[in-house]
Amino acid sequence: MTPYQNILIVEDLADVADWLYRVCADCFEGADIRTANSISSAKSSINDWVPQLALLDIGLPDGSGIGIMDDIFAVNPSCQCVITTIFDDSNHLFDALKAGATGYLLKDETEAVFTTRLKGILEGQPPLSPSIARRMLSFFQPQKTAPETDITPREKEVLTLIAHGYSVRGTAESLSLSHHTVASYVKDIYRKLQINSRAEATLKAMELGLISRNE
């Protein structure tokens, strides 16, 4: 039997909650899985029931799932709290870790990746989405100076269009390039600039003067 006999899922979107329920049922056979769609309902659940594992969304109707961890730890200090969210930025990540989260999984991962990462907790592996693990590693690595000096003129063109909201396919059409060529450019740009999202690409384009802050 799984060591995580009681699992709490805090998620306000019904279809996502059902998906997380199914994933947990597959990963932790025989577990008692309960769902809550708000912080208040989650607090009610733990009044007479102690979870060993909690999957917590951040954007809930009555606050952030990060905030309920103190209540969970009050009834079970050893509970494993895993954030399940769409937010991949450093602020949410490190706020969650500071509050005591032991994992951070992005809900837009493929089900196979999400399931594998979550199930790894049974072997003592922290459940982290691959991009989140890379972000954590990069935070502690020395920052390279002026990475933009490696960006080629063509890559600057691609970065500019991406920052303006163009999709990879739209960028390819605008520059008369193939979709796969632009995808390769984007991959290289992200690697060179040490970024992981479109939002970070937009900020970097501003820093490089490729777009203005008013655009």
UniProtKB/TrEMBL annotation:
HTH luxR-type domain span: 144-209
Top-rank taxon, per record: Bacteria
Gene3D superfamilies on file: 3.40.50.2300, Winged helix-like DNA-binding domain superfamily/Winged helix DNA-binding domain
Modified residues (4-aspartylphosphate): D57
UniProt keyword terms in alphabetical order: DNA-binding, Phosphoprotein, Transcription, Transcription regulation
Domain Response regulatory: 6-122
Stored PANTHER family: NITRATE_NITRITE RESPONSE REGULATOR PROTEIN NARP, TWO-COMPONENT RESPONSE REGULATOR
Name of this chain's protein: Response regulator
Organism: Zhongshania marina
